[in-house]
Amino acid sequence: EKNDQLVAKGIHFLSSSAATHWPQSPFEDPAVLSGICEKVVFPNILLRDSDVELFEDNCSEYVRRDMEGADQETRRRSSMDLVKAMGRLNEAK
């Protein structure tokens, strides 16, 4: 869909930033984490109409993309990578 690659790249940038060690990381602030989850992660992991259509039209292709990581440049995959990066940051504390 429109701007998917741009959004995915922006979320990837956030993931890279979260994985970077900062003297005062903005990703350690609970308010920032909450805002990222509410405004970036949740809206981008929801099933969109195009996902539902693909599943209805060709469920095997939908599952293949998900299982094989064929969706590396999607909003959903980038959002999940962001969650993992923020999780690793908080585990290190």
From TrEMBL:
Gene Ontology annotations for the cellular component aspect, listed alphabetically: cytosol; nuclear envelope
InterPro entries: ARM-like (IPR011989), ARM-type_fold (IPR016024), XPO2_central (IPR013713)
Domain of life of the native organism: Eukaryota
Domain named Exportin-2 central: residues: 2-92
GO MF terms held by the record: nuclear export signal receptor activity
An individual GO BP term: protein import into nucleus
Coiled coil location: none
PANTHER family: EXPORTIN-2, IMPORTIN-7, 8, 11
Protein name: Exportin-2 central domain-containing protein
Protein's organism: Polarella glacialis
